[in-house]
Design goal:
It is built from 18 helices and 12 strands. The radius of gyration is 23 Å and the shape is globular. The strands form 3 sheets. It has a 7-stranded mixed sheet with strand order 6-5-4-7-8-12-11, with helices on both faces. The chain has a 3-stranded antiparallel sheet with strand order 1-3-2. The protein has a two-stranded parallel sheet with strand order 9-10. With 344 residues, the chain is of the alpha/beta class. α17 links the parallel β9 and β10. Helices cover 44% and strands 16% of the residues. The protein has 2 domains: 76 residues, Winged helix-like DNA-binding domain superfamily/Winged helix DNA-binding domain (Arc Repressor Mutant, subunit A); 184 residues, 3-Layer(aba) Sandwich (Rossmann fold), CATH 3.40.50. Bound molecules: S-adenosylmethionine (SAM). The site of S-adenosylmethionine has 18 residues, from α12.
């Protein structure tokens, strides 16, 4: 039997686009995104549409292969393809340029990196053993690996910093930060969020606390916050800087299991006197099992670390066991919510 182009495709045909196929081909899409990100194709489209042949000539690539990869990504919304064979960036594709504010290029390189891919492959065994697949693949916990591998740490820190672009601004706008006093960002990465917070409050000072290798590459040296920050390197399981009026834990607790969270919160509580505030900034899962974007992030946690995304009652329980009272949970226009707590 011959198939004419106009004939409807049987929805049960295994080659028909379907929710199952979307899932099965996920690694194909992410490998394709990685390829164009590594070769910086989006940068080459900054000035307007170009054909695969032109792009390949500029980048020193194989034109036919590039055209095929761009074509599948065009089908999935990163590029458009016109009838003359020219590709252009969509709004989503623009985010993969390296020179745009809030560029997701570093995040694309991180999430498609070998660290994530090897960890993802191990999920089958994680279902059997419960062991974090990154640890099985690499023999050490994720953050231990990063501390010993400068190139991977750089990749991770840059990916995190890229999340702290527009996302940091949205979060900083979502909370009435105090006009004076000191904010301590515990596990604050390179300080993108602290910089956004200090940028909004001209009399506020800040301390960026993270592992020494990470704070060494901090982003705080900008005119808007000059003279109002300091950095400290250390281990948040042992001790965090004392004397803060407000402590921040942004995207920290979801990296750890309950026992480790209690150790981190314990160190914060020892540094923060009664009445001092703590903002835990993490996704808050609905407790009725409703779909939420952080359910995907939760699988990244399952693969890489011993942590997980949590519901509001789960955060409240951890906080109460560490000497904090949960005041309120503020949704934000970004993925995470702000969980405000007070030391009791
Ligand atoms: C998921 S990142 C979040 C970074 C930043 N708060 C943000 O939201 O972009 C977790 C951070 O925890 C830091 N970290 C991990 N273990 C640590 C430790 N034992 N002491 C201090 N910081 C640590 C990492 O270096 C990393 O910057």
């Amino acid at each position: 039997m011959s198939t004419s182009p106009g004939q409807p495709i049987d929805p049960m045909d295994p080659f028909t686009p379907s929710p199952l196929n979307q899932l099965l081909y996920g690694h194909v899409y992410s490998a394709s995104v990685r390829a164009v990100a590594v070769h910086r194709i989006p940068d080459l489209l900054a000035d307007g549409p170009r054909t695969a042949g032109e792009l390949a000539a500029s980048a020193g690539l194989h034109a036919t292969s590039l055209r095929r990869v761009l074509r599948v990504l065009a089908m999935h919304g990163l590029f458009t393809l016109d009838d003359k064979g020219a590709f252009a960036l969509t709004e989503a594709g623009e985010q993969l340029r390296t020179d745009v504010p809030g560029s997701q290029h570093p995040m694309a390189l991180l999430t498609t990196d070998e660290m994530f891919r090897r960890a993802a492959t191990g999920i089958t065994d994680t279902l059997r053993t419960g062991t974090t697949s990154f640890e099985v693949a690499y023999g050490v916990p994720f953050f231990t690996h990063l501390a010993a591998s400068p190139a991977d740490r750089e990749l991770f820190d840059e990916g995190m910093a890229s999340l702290s672009g527009r996302g940091a601004e949205l979060l900083a706008e979502s909370y009435a930060f105090p006009g004076s006093g000191t904010v301590v960002d515990v596990g604050g990465g390179r300080g993108g969020f602290l910089r956004a917070v200090l940028g909004r409050e001209p009399a506020l000072t800040g301390v960026l606390f993270d592992q020494p290798e990470t704070v060494a590459d901090h982003l705080l040296d900008v005119p808007e916050v000059r003279g109002r920050w300091s950095v400290a390197g250390g281990d948040f399981f042992s001790e965090v800087p004392a004397g803060g009026d407000l402590y921040l834990l942004k995207h920290i607790l979801h990296d750890w299991n309950d026992e480790d969270c209690l150790r981190i919160l314990g160190a914060v509580r020892r540094a923060a006197g009664p009445g001092k505030r703590l903002l835990v900034i993490d996704a808050v899962l609905p407790d009725n099992g409703a779909p939420h974007p952080a359910v995907e992030l939760d699988i990244i946690m399952l693969m890489l670390v011993k942590g997980r995304e949590r519901t509001a009652p789960e955060f409240e329980d951890l906080l109460a066991r560490s000497g904090f009272r949960l005041n309120r949970v503020l949704p934000t226009p970004s993925l995470p919510s702000i969980i405000e707590a007070e030391a009791v």
